Amino acid sequence: MKPVQIRRLRSHVVASVVALMSVAVPVAAEDDADRLGEIEKQVQILTEELERLRLGEVAEPAKEPKYGLGPAASKVYRLAKPGVSIAGYGEALYQNVSDSNENDDPSGRLDEIDFVRAVLYSGFKFSDWIIFNSELEFEHASTGKRGEVSVEFAYLDLLLSDPVNVRAGMLLVPVGIVNERHEPSTFHGSRRTEIEQVIIPSTWRANGAGVFGEIVSGVAYRLYLVEGLNAAGFTAGGIRGGRQSGSRAVAEDFGVSGRIEYDGLLGAKFGGSFYAGNSGQAASDSLGGVSAMTSVVSVHGDYARRGLEMRALYAMATVDDAGRLNALLDLTGMRSIGEEMSGWYATAAYDVLPLLVRGTRQGLSPFVQYQSLNTQEAVPSGFDPDPANERTVLTVGLTYKPDPNVAIKFDHQSMKNEAETGVDQWNLAINYLF
Questions:
Q1: Quick check: pTM over 0.70?
Q2: Phi, psi of 152 (to 5 degrees)
Q3: Which of 160, 270, 278, 418 could link 390 by a cystine bridge, Cβ 3.0 to 4.6 Å?
């Protein structure tokens, strides 16, 4: 806001206060407490308006998502003129773990409370068509106690037209739901789903470049060329360890990732996404180079209207040359990398608070979520799958939102697997975004 505008508004506030004070004397004389309270309320409103205009758009709350990102991450795109954008989110999580597993054997697990992450988004709008956006994440409260600081994304957008725009830098790989929209206040459950951690390894970021836009009204796409995964980090538990996260990434192999999504139906969004690329990164054995072609495919749907929220996702991943990778990584027995892995989940929630309090901005949503996954659906000949990797998770809980951008979540997770070693737990989380 320009200095002259601030001076004018300040003059307006002063004049308003003087005018209000001029009626304060008879008000006091009449001992009219209600009228005096109204005067104080008007003064407070004018003061807050002055402060809001002084800060400008930096102080605006997070609203709707844009270009595939979450509400807070999209804040820079809502700037009306060139300048800085600041946003963020965070989450704290308490996990109360059962003392025993499905077999009634001791679980060996301890309860834990953690400030999982505090995130700051910073962006800058250079002009109507050049935008920088970034996410800096502080995990587990301290780098001195198993925490770390990471750049989750940092990229430049060239907004050329509705159908074709260019993005380059460190990008979020556009696969699944949570990887791009991972702000915890936007989904139910205290913890991210297992499927979007081990099959779609969220948060999955990579250096790269690509194009994005809206083909026709309601149909959006993204298509990127990114650094490849590194199969040296693959395990029986999935491909999560293969992420290079843009940090001095081996670039012998690249991958292609894309997404298409339709949101032309009221309250509904449907889409599909993929990643494909060699993951060998120059690995070789006596037979020659190991390409370790890796593919991830996902389809998903979202619906949110009149208090009802539903979400479903299916994901499948395949890894070629899994047997040769096992030999290179000295993986034997049930420790084989999965040639195929898949999983799905469905979530349903309903906000009951508007039924009880008309016009409220708060929310209270009971929800249920079911997951089924297996990271060793198929293994190479000569290896056996670990039955513990074929598992289900049933989550039942409650999400309370005292504000649309703040969530308090309480839920119970029933963990089952074919080895009967699953360990149930209760979770309590506090989330925010701004």
A1: yes
A2: -85, -35
A3: 418
